[in-house]
């Protein structure tokens, strides 16, 4: 499959619900054959954007292109995309194999061919042994893999995933993250994954697209978006950063770049308001001038070599190159 055939692009895509603009003239070219996370808070427009790509939501304005072809008004089955829903939407009365083969049955594919392709998909997601079970006889992680196999059986050019890990417990969520990433690499197709979890996006994504208030606030490689946030919103939403206003402007400063020292010997003085032990690290929350809060994330051995307590005055220290200028 050529790279061009996998190119997915949004051109001034807009979604209105009455007077409310849910997605506002969004432009973005998704890198082909990569894992992209649409990240943002509830109501930012990320799920509406995904549903418009899938064809489960009509677009108000603009175009969605796949391989240079406008697919905006095609029915979901003819777009070259497939969607995996948050609640998996498995048919309770059908077996695992029948669920996976369902879309092929709707297309009138011969029963033998359907069973063969369903078997291949179940092998891909390591569920061959459970082909005859019903969905309610499966764990949450197994149900998710059935839903994945069902979406992938159509051989889509892009797989769209709407918060696919949100129904899983924390341990399983982490395990399924690695399975999703491995699957994307093996298949060599584009995965577009909606999430509001920063850790999830950083763990999975080649590219992160941060949405806020119906627009894309910042997009780029995961490490770049984390290390070089362009706006205060991105810095705060990605986590791990302080946003502080100094005399010469507003800055992002990574929490793990802040060190503690004695009063009068740092960049500025503060007093500690909270100390939280986090296992490998200790989070120290301090208040500085202007009633601003700064978090210092210290390795646990560094903190406990000289423990600090709430109410204690301290100095805060950082290297100047770790101050990152924000545009807004």
Strand content bin? 25-35%
Q: How many DSSP H or I helices?
A: 10
* Rg: 24 Å
Distance between the termini: 41 Å
Query: Uncertain runs with pLDDT below 50, 5 residues or more?
Result: none
CATH superfamily grouping of the largest domain: P-loop containing nucleotide triphosphate hydrolases
Total number of strands: 18
Q: In total, how many domains does the architecture comprise?
A: 2
pLDDT averaged residue by residue: 91
| Side-by-side strand order of the widest sheet | 6-7-8-3-9-10
Level-1 CATH class name of the largest domain: Alpha Beta
Q: What is the N-to-C order of secondary-structure elements (H for helix, E for strand)?
A: HEEEHEEEHHHEHEHEEHHEEEEEEHEE
Describe the structure using short key phrases.
single chain, 328 residues, alpha+beta, Rossmann fold, OB fold (Dihydrolipoamide Acetyltransferase, E2P), 2 domains, 6-stranded mixed beta sheet, 5-stranded antiparallel beta sheet, 10 helices, 18 strands, 29% helix
Task: Give an account of the 3D structure.
The protein is α+β, with helices and mostly antiparallel strands and 328 residues long. It has two domains: 3-227, Rossmann fold (3-Layer(aba) Sandwich), CATH 3.40.50.300; 240-325, Nucleic acid-binding proteins (OB fold (Dihydrolipoamide Acetyltransferase, E2P), Beta Barrel), CATH 2.40.50.140. It has helices at residues 3-6, 46-54, 96-106, 111-124, 140-152, 170-187, 198-204, 222-227, 232-238, 300-305; strands spanning 8-17, 20-30, 35-39, 61-66, 69-70, 81-84, 158-162, 190-195, 207-212, 215-221, 241-246, 249-254, 259-261, 268-277, 281-288, 292-299, 313-317, 323-325. The strands form four sheets. The protein has a six-stranded mixed β-sheet with strand order 6-7-8-3-9-10, with helices on both faces. The longest helix is centred in the middle third of the chain and has 18 residues, at 170-187. The mean pLDDT is 91.
């Amino acid at each position: 499959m050529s790279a061009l055939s996998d190119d997915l692009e949004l051109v001034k895509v807009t979604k209105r619900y009455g007077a409310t603009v849910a997605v506002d003239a969004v432009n973005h070219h998704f890198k082909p054959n990569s894992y992209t996370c649409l990240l943002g808070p509830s109501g930012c427009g990320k799920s509406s954007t995904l549903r418009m790509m899938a064809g489960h939501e009509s677009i108000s304005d603009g175009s969605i292109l796949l391989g240079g072809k406008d697919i905006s008004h095609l029915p979901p089955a003819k777009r070259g995309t497939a969607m995996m829903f948050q609640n998996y939407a498995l048919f309770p009365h059908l077996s695992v194999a029948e669920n996976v083969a369902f879309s092929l049955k709707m297309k009138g594919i011969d029963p033998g061919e359907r069973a063969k392709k369903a078997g291949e998909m179940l092998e891909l997601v390591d569920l061959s042994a459970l082909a005859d079970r019903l969905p309610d006889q499966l764990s949450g992680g197994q149900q998710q893999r059935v839903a994945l196999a069902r979406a992938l059986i159509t051989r889509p050019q892009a797989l769209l995933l709407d918060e696919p890990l949100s129904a899983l417990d924390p341990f399983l969520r982490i395990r399924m993250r690695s399975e999703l990433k491995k699957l994307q690499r093996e298949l060599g197709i584009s995965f577009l994954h909606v999430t509001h979890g920063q850790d999830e996006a950083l763990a999975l994504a080649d590219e992160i697209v941060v949405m806020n208030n119906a627009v894309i606030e910042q997009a780029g490689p995961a490490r770049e978006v984390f290390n070089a946030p362009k706006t205060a919103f991105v810095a705060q939403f990605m986590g791990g950063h302080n946003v502080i206003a100094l005399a010469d402007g507003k800055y992002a400063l990574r929490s793990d770049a802040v060190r503690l020292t004695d009063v009068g010997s740092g960049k500025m003085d503060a007093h500690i308001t909270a100390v939280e032990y986090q296992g490998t690290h200790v989070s120290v929350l301090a208040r500085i001038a202007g009633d601003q809060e700064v978090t210092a994330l210290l390795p646990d051995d560094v903190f406990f070599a000289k423990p600090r307590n709430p109410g204690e005055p301290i100095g805060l220290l950082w290297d100047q190159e770790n101050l990152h200028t924000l545009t807004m």
